[in-house]
Design brief:
Blueprint: H1 2-5, H2 28-31, E1 34-37, E2 42-45, H3 46-51, H4 70-80, E3 95-96, E4 105-106, H5 108-113, E5 117-118, E6 126-127, E7 145-147, E8 154-156, E9 163-165, E10 173-175, H6 176-190, H7 200-208, H8 219-222, E11 259-261, E12 269-271, H9 287-295, E13 312-313, E14 316-317, H10 343-346, H11 370-398, E15 406-411, H12 416-425, E16 434-439, H13 447-451, H14 453-467, E17 472-473, E18 479-480, H15 484-488, H16 491-504, H17 515-523, H18 538-548, H19 553-562, H20 564-570, H21 581-595, H22 599-609, H23 614-620, H24 622-629, H25 638-644, E19 646-647, H26 659-670, H27 678-686, E20 701-705, E21 711-713, E22 718-722, H28 727-746
Parallel strand pairs: 15-16, 19-20, 20-22
Antiparallel strand pairs: 1-2, 3-4, 5-6, 7-8, 9-10, 11-12, 13-14, 17-18, 21-22
Helix pairs in contact: 11-24, 14-16, 16-22, 23-24, 25-26, 27-28
Domain PHD-type: 15-132
Organism: Rhagologus leucostigma
Keywords: Ligase, Metal-binding, Nucleus, Transferase, Ubl conjugation pathway, Zinc, Zinc-finger
């Protein structure tokens, strides 16, 4: 020991050994920082010092070695010199197992090698390989392997030292080494579950299992100019034929000459016009990325429209892919003057009154007889109305959590997703706060508009973006897609959180979930059997069909040979000896592609939906919530609007002066005999062009007064209507006021 404490002739950090473990290794990730104090003639690994059993921090942080006094360190070295390590059999074992009656001692590096557990918290306890804490492994938990969400390599579901599972997500498994590197990089403020974003429960369990979480800021926050490279964006049009006269490097934001980057690599770009893209919200991938997907066993992501015909421009086929289905159609740069359009056309534009549902031309209708179709549709709509009334009451119960404290979101309609993400991730954001939305391009809006119309419009745009985003796939009913970048950035959690917040805060019903996705959320993926229509990838769907409809064993085996790489990647490759084996094979492929493949996104999405207790209510009332999550909202009708408003009068409603004009006017609007729409009327009164799933608060009312023109009081959701002598006078005043009021707001 005297040799250890003597000062060497050539004092080199790399060659100096630790006074506690006797090693010269300099590996901060495993043993902590190797510190050398020339003035004390001392070198020590930080973790060796922390975990030593006979020493405590008796000094201040700036005394000795982080509070460990030099005299105490020398005493600990002398104490350890008498103890033999049970692993390497050498003396100097300063760490002992804290289990009762266990007398094992060891060096810190030896303990790591022998898979001991060191708890970097409270009393800094250590447990030997026999008494170390273990995680509970339920018998019903699925065996096998899944992806570690940090390194994305496979990790086996085994109760071993090298594997850890998340305490908050039953389907999240990690390599211990990956978690330790993540903790050292993220620090105590940013280390959390990579699937559900849980921090407290996750950190508590990881500390118990021996993960060291340093009490400092994340490494990326400490690095100077760490994000400088992110400020440089690729801006070059790489399509085969660029249409821009100002060159491939020309980029004009908010126009058809704005450059859109590849959604996968971000290293190639295109002008919106050069790829026939109508909106920035559409996704685009470069030729190189598509070829990579095509050559891999995972198949390329084709367009979501199954049998889309190629669009022609001046007799020439488009050089790049068509826009994704269900995206809003609007010519760039044209004003959104929806007031001058008929109800049938109005809903196809991205205006404050646009619906989340498709135009009628894009809907698939069942080939039933007109009588049966109408009858079934009537019964279905009646059932959906009943279920939506139930959801309305449930959401009102959840709304009790909302406080009067406000959180303001600054939103730009052109960057709805990035602005919403930034707002939801800000530190002062709480789902229980009242949300106020301020559109950056609508600075002149009144206070009433900001608190009502802006919030309704924000949630409508947000749900529309999510519906058409890369987080979901499918044409009508959508399932979650697999986007590794989105998993890394925790976007599935944010999407679920946004949908939950929208429902409770008065946003529109999403209405685009597939039945399979809804059932996975409510009943668990293990209890769901997917169908062929859940497969959005055209190539995979065709492969499944070929297997399903193979009429001989030879044709089946030939099909399997052609797609053996895909089957191997899916874990479905097995010997086929009979034609009937195809049914089990098809089922396995569907379960893998629709459910198992998106295990991580699904779990993250579920955690987001738990916000404000929405997922719990979904599981308690599945039929009711299915009506708003899996079905499009019902088109506004004269009957719907009439039932929505309560007429304030002391006499019979049918005898109220002006009531018949009001009902007659709604019929004219519905039939298209007016320059305004039913959505315009609703927007004029409430600030929203849709009926929220939670309903309006307060409930809309109508008053007939001796006034010249109609007045919409949005704070009260009250419509004050003039009493006129003739119906034509009533109609003229309604159209003039509503049209001009909304036009001024848009301008």
């Amino acid at each position: 020991e005297e040799l250890r404490m003597s000062k060497p002739n050539n004092f080199d950090v790399q060659s100096t050994f630790c006074v506690l473990c006797g090693r010269t290794d300099d590996c901060p990730e495993k043993y902590g920082e190797k510190r050398t104090y020339v003035e004390y003639n001392l070198t020590v690994h930080y973790y060796c010092l922390l975990m030593s059993s006979g020493i405590w921090q008796r000094g201040e942080e700036d005394e000795g070695v982080d509070g460990f006094l030099i005299t105490d360190i020398r005493k600990e070295v002398n104490r350890a010199a008498k103890l033999k390590c049970n692993i390497c059999k050498k003396k100097g074992a300063s760490i002992g197992c804290v289990a009762p009656k266990c007398k094992r001692s060891y060096h810190f590096p030896c303990g790591i090698q022998r898979e001991c557990i060191f708890q970097f918290m409270e009393d800094f306890r250590s447990y030997c390989w026999e008494h170390r804490p273990v995680q509970k492994f339920m018998d019903e938990e699925p065996r096998g392997a899944s992806q570690c969400t940090i390194c994305l390599d496979l990790v086996e579901h085994l109760p071993v030292y090298t594997v850890l599972k998340s305490p908050c997500c039953k389907n999240a498994w990690f390599h211990r080494e990956c978690l330790q590197y993540q903790a050292l990089s993220a620090g105590i403020f940013f280390f959390r579950c990579t699937v559900c974003n849980n921090k407290d429960q996750f950190q508590k369990e990881m500390l118990r299992m021996g993960i060291h979480i340093p009490e400092r800021d994340a490494s990326w926050e400490l690095e100077e100019n760490a994000y400088q490279d992110l400020l440089h964006c690729y801006q070059h049009c790489d399509v085969k034929r660029c249409l821009c006269k100002k060159g491939r490097d020309y980029n004009e934001p908010d126009s058809k000459w704005e450059i859109k980057r590849c959604q996968y690599c971000g290293s190639h770009g295109t002008h919106l016009a050069c790829s026939s893209m109508k909106s920035w919200e559409q996704n685009w991938e470069c030729v190189e990325c598509r070829s990579i997907f095509a050559k891999s066993g995972k198949y390329s992501k084709r367009k979501k429209r199954a049998l889309a015909t190629s669009e022609k421009t001046n007799g020439t086929a488009c050089l790049l892919e068509e826009p994704p289905p269900k995206s809003p159609r609007q010519s760039s740069g044209s004003p959104r003057n929806f007031l001058l359009q008929s109800p049938k056309i109005m809903c196809q534009n991205l205006s404050p009154c646009s619906h989340l549902e498709l135009p009628a031309s894009n809907k698939v209708t069942m080939s039933l007889s007109p009588v049966m179709s109408n009858k079934n549709r009537s019964l279905t709509q009646k059932h959906l109305r009943e279920q939506r009334r139930e959801v309305c009451n449930i959401l009102k119960e959840l709304k009790v959590q909302i406080k009067t404290k406000t959180t303001r979101l600054n939103i730009s309609a052109e960057n709805i997703w990035s602005n919403a993400l930034k707002g939801f991730r800000q530190r002062n954001f709480s789902p229980t706060n009242t949300i106020e939305v301020n559109f950056s391009n609508c600075k002149n809006r009144s206070k009433t508009n900001t608190s009502a119309a802006s919030k309704h419009h924000f949630f409508q745009l947000l749900m529309l973006h999510l519906q058409n985003s890369s987080l979901f796939e499918g044409s009508s009913g959508k399932n979650l897609s697999l986007d590794f970048q989105a998993v890394k950035e925790n976007l599935y959690f944010e999407a679920g959180k946004m949908i939950a917040v929208s429902l409770v805060h008065g946003g529109p019903s999403p209405g685009f979930f597939s039945k399979t996705l809804f059932d996975c959320l409510v009943y668990g993926p293990e209890n769901v059997k997917p169908a062929l229509e859940d497969v959005a990838d055209v190539d995979v769907a065709q492969t499944i069909q070929m297997i399903k409809y193979a009429n001989s064993l030879s044709s089946l085996q030939s099909t399997l040979q052609d797609c053996c790489e895909f089957l191997a990647a899916a874990g479905c490759l097995r010997p086929v000896t009979a034609l009937c084996d195809k049914n089990m094979l098809v089922n396995d492929i569907l379960i893998y592609h629709v459910i198992k493949r998106i295990t991580l996104p699904l779990e993250s999405f579920r955690q987001g939906l738990k916000t404000l207790g929405v997922l719990e209510k979904m599981q308690m009332h599945p039929d009711a919530f299915s009506s708003i999550l899996c079905h499009k909202p019902e088109r506004l009708s004269a009957e719907t609007i009439c039932d929505l408003f309560t007429i304030h009068s002391s006499s019979d409603v049918n005898k109220v002066e002006g009531a018949d004009f009001w009902m007659g006017y709604l019929q004219d609007v519905e039939s298209g005999e007016s320059v305004v729409t039913l959505e315009d009327i609703l927007l004029f009164v409430t600030g929203s062009c849709y009926i929220p799933s939670i309903g309006f608060d307060p409930e809309p009312t109508i008053k007939f007064l001796r006034i010249r023109y109609p007045i919409g009081k949005r704070l009260l959701n009250c419509l004050e209507l003039p009493i006129t002598k003739t119906y034509q006078q009533f109609k003229n005043k309604m159209e003039l006021t509503i049209r001009n009021t909304l036009r001024v707001e848009r301008e």
